[in-house]
Amino acid sequence: MLECFELRTVIEPLAVRHSLPLATSKQLDRIEEIIDEFEGVRDLMLISQWNLRLHLAFYAPAGMSHLENMITRAHTIAQALYPYLHAAQRGADRNSGRA
User: pTM value?
Assistant: First the structure.
């Protein structure tokens, strides 16, 4: 999983560099809509799905489908870590009295 996070730190900036110069106002509006849709989400699994949607919306203007597939795969593998993070967070909340 750590390898996937490291891979993302390399390929996602590449996707951004290719996407941002090509982004239309309509695409930027869609990114804002995605952000607004999920502002109140607290469930880690839903956050993970939202996060991928948001990232793919950022990269869509580049039209680099192979790169998007690689990013999606890395997100999916890393997503397996989220239940453990959620359990750890619940344990930390219980220990601090915020449960």
Answer: 0.73
